[in-house]
Amino acid sequence: MPQIEKSPPRTSHHTESPPGPRTPSGPGPRTKKAGRTALRGDLSASVVVFLLAVPLSLGIALATGAPLQAGLVAAVVGGIVAGLLGGAPLQVTGAATGLLVVTADLVQRYGWRATCAITVLAGLAQIVLGAVRVARATLAVSPAIVHGMLAGIGATIALGQLHVVLGGSPDSSALDNAAALPGQLAHPHLAALLIGTVTVAVLIGWGRLPGRAGRWARVLPAPLAAVLAATAVSAGTAVARVELPSWRLPEPPALPDVSLPALAAAVLTVTLVASMESLLSAVAVDRLAAERPGAPTGRARLNRELAAQGVANAVSGLLGGLPVSGGAMRGSANVRAGAATRRATVLHGVWVLLTAGLLAAVLELIPLAALAALVMVVGVRMVSFAHIRHVQRHREFPVYAATLGGVVLFGVLQGVLTGIAVALFLALRRLTHTRITVTEEADGHRVRVSGQLTFLAVPRLTRALGQVPAHTDVVVELCGSFMDHAAYEALQSWSTAHRAHGGWVNLGGRPGRPIAEPAKAHSCRPWTPWRNHHCTRPAPDPAVATESSGSQLLGGVSAFQRHTAPLVREELARLAREGQRPSQLFLTCADSRLVTSMITSSGPGDLFTVRNVGNLMPPPGSDASCDSVGAAIEYAVEVLRVGSITVCGHSGCGAMGALLGAAAPEDAEPTPLSRWLRHGRPSLARMQRIGRLGRGEVSLSGRPVDDDQERLALVNVMQQLDHLRAHPCVARRVAEGALTLHGMYFHVGEAQAYVLDEATGRFCAVRGEPAPVTV
Fold first, then answer.
1. Per-residue burial over 686-706, b = 16 or more CB atoms within 10 Å of its CB, e = otherwise
2. Which of 344, 431, 512, 564 could lock onto 42 through a cystine, CB 3.0 to 4.6 A?
3. Is the pTM of this model over 0.70?
4. What is the C-alpha to C-alpha distance for residues 47 and 349, in angstroms, rounded to an integer?
5. Where does 611-759 have alpha helices with state H?
């Protein structure tokens, strides 16, 4: 009865949350309760981010060679100023990890006051960029360049801070640090090495503690736990520790005594890196928040966020702080800790300010080796193997490698320019590189053109077409996405001449972009109804009175082999080599009208789909005859390591209608269908219990529930999610934070998807907006 598919989703759903109810005299009880819940979430999240920001800010300041209090100033300004003015309310701004290498170079070259001046100028440049609304254009930079830049910065950070962990001091460049590393390893400072080892061990193992200890450990951020452990280990040892001078008015920034081009290059580098890191982090945090049940529906306003980052940088530089940017690490911690509004970000800055003023003596107990180890681990994690696999899959690894190498060898700005140059070269090569092959087959010849067909490829095209004998059948496959006028004329001229000499030519390109398509070609979409679906049917045979559905199916398969298989063969060959790596599990009904790949905009390998009558998930302890679905769930969670599971019900579900129908006589022989549907009885009882006790009911945004059959389908989604959580493998991965569960309802007649907000029991309509982020 259950069916398993490997199909897919590639789009992220944006849900519509209805406003809370109001009475004429003011907010209703639900609104007040939601406000108190949001306040509690903001308070707890602000404490979590504060505990993360203090050691991280001190570590970044230490790694740059700036005064240690500069990191705390950056955290305070980033939290309060950017938090109040920013367009991404849940993003947390502070000392910029991505600017660590740049800032260290500026401090060494020009001194601290000049670095502050450059920070102010970069902030003013960000304000101008935000005012002229270029934030979206900044995100147009290739992800391979961005990830390569961050990886290069991370590698440089890790090499430099490793020297501090070993008891030495870093050199000015990554190459010098790498050359000096063998000598440093031969003569380490044992106390500093022990402190650094403890810090790294706690950072890596803190989130992996099992059982009750692990649950308590997740309350305390790993960086703070690591620094506390290292401070305890260092008690009584003679190691360098944090030194915070008494607070006083900062010295005003002073421009460096350099040429205008050198100053402009420094300001441009800080502006570019800080802006890109902030905007990418804002998008990532916004998407993370959108996945959380009950999350606010307001989305990031990127131009406002860019201008707010500029104001924060200008203020931070004037007050003697480090350059700031939004950070994905701090922002994701803020979201996961339950932040609901910008209060969490602002409060975290207030807590840092109070700590710097009242608990400076406590901060001075921290050993510098612990901060160096903390920043070293942050640098290592900036080199993401997931990003490497991603750019490799999209054939962008040369751009990634060139950017990474350029950052390590020459600097951040030079590395980014190197990556841009390589990306442009590859784009030009792909535009001009065309492969043309001619193969002889049993029924004729096949000419396959891979790549873009421009005037540069016309000589090779005509040469290849000249190899085709006259009076033969020829299929010309154009697998590129572009053909200019010269190539089109050459192809049409040859086709006309070949047909004039008695040959037959079929010219075909990508779906929707045919060159010259015969009238009998397959033009329907994959979801075209089979009723009157004539294009995949073979030519009628006069000897056969009726046409079977089997011949119709074979006609559709034949159309796939002819038109679609050449387009997907390369991607499927890659999946065959690498194996399946779906990111999501989709549990839905076997109803033929529910086309999972269509409603989730999915491609091969994206989605692991389990289908059965009624989208049911038998709870643990059911008889062995129901192990098929449980086995599929276990395989997806434990072996494929999917990150989310979605249970999707639909309108007009026959299983729900059967559950609502009259019960079978007691002496009736149970059938396989009736035995299977008993797993839906808890959903039926739940719906009846909700109505009888008056505890509210599930609802749809925008319209009332049609009838009991639709109401049961909605309740059934919630009940099957509960059954999922009862399975040990699912419960464990959810507790680890590695798996999320979602409910969905699809109304077939409306072609409308709804996503469940479990906090309210409301299914919210997914809106068909063109982009997940507004500017």
1. bbeebeeeeeeebbbbeeebe
2. 344
3. no
4. 10
5. 627-634, 654-660, 672-677, 681-693, 708-725, 728-735
